[in-house]
Design a protein that fits this description.
The chain is α/β, with parallel strands linked by helices. It has two domains: about 150 residues, Probable inorganic polyphosphate/atp-NAD kinase, domain 1 (Rossmann fold, 3-Layer(aba) Sandwich), CATH 3.40.50.10330; about 140 residues, Probable inorganic polyphosphate/atp-NAD kinase, domain 2 (Tumour Suppressor Smad4), CATH 2.60.200. It has five helices and 18 strands. The strands form two sheets. Strands 1, 2, 4, 5, 6, 7, 8, 10, 11, 15 and 18 form an eleven-stranded mixed beta sheet that branches. A seven-stranded mixed beta sheet has the order 3-17-16-9-12-13-14, with no helix packed on it. The N and C termini lie far apart (about 80 Å).
Amino acid sequence: MPKVGIIYNDDKPAACRACLDLKTKLVSAGWEVEISSGIGGILGYSNPHSPVCHTPLDRLVPPGFDDSMKCAIVLGGDGTVLAASRQLAPLQLPMLAVNTGHMGFLTETYINCLETAVDAVLADNYTVEDRAMLAVRVFRGNAVQWEALSLNEMVLHREPLTCMCHFEVAIGAHSPVDVAADGVIVATPTGSTAYSLSAGGPVVTPGVPVLVLMPICPHSLASRALVFNETEPIAIVSASSNRLVMVVDGNAGCYVQPDDRVEVKRSPYNARFIRLRSPEFFRVLREKLGWGLPHIAKPTSVELP
């Protein structure tokens, strides 16, 4: 019996209804269906009294999901897709992301097109696009305090009401550099259109094998975004005495003490997206972010009588 998975946002009534309807449709068509909430991909936060709060990267796979599945169908918004990417990455399962949220930058189709999209997937009328992910780890000495997979970005920043921070950043075998800023972002090409873009970073098309280092509110005109090869790992330590906060993909993170070390590198896992039509990144930029829209001239001024 063929097998498929469904990951959905159980906080959204539309996603819950669509999940039940989709399960009924697939079971009646002879498919075995496993269901999971996307909450399993949200790792949570550690705190100063319990700094070790992490799940090993390969233990996020939902119960019942395995590599015999054809694919997974993800029902939710971008947050659910980010969570599902961590849950599915160890199995390298492709996912059809269906938007039941607002922006839906990472989704392939909309909930009102769900039936048509699923029919196309079951008929093998699709391609798969691989997106790079990050493996993020916080070390205290040689012990891992926290770790996560990231599709978008890792952000290391000051706590509220603390002073500007200094970060010592080492990329690959290059000499370490000092960055004075409120924080730093390490982003994948997928994440270049998320927090990094809001901080003034460049947009990177998904197929380019690079990562982006983006200072947040740097205290120097010389500190700007750096694009570097994805094969080079990056290590960041605080050169300040203040405790820092690290956040991954906007929904998981931990405190980073002054003696801790954050290491970020290209994950061996990819996030695999089902595409029902040829990927067209500029179209997505235009539709979701308004990039490259035709210039509309202002009307010619008219003299009043």
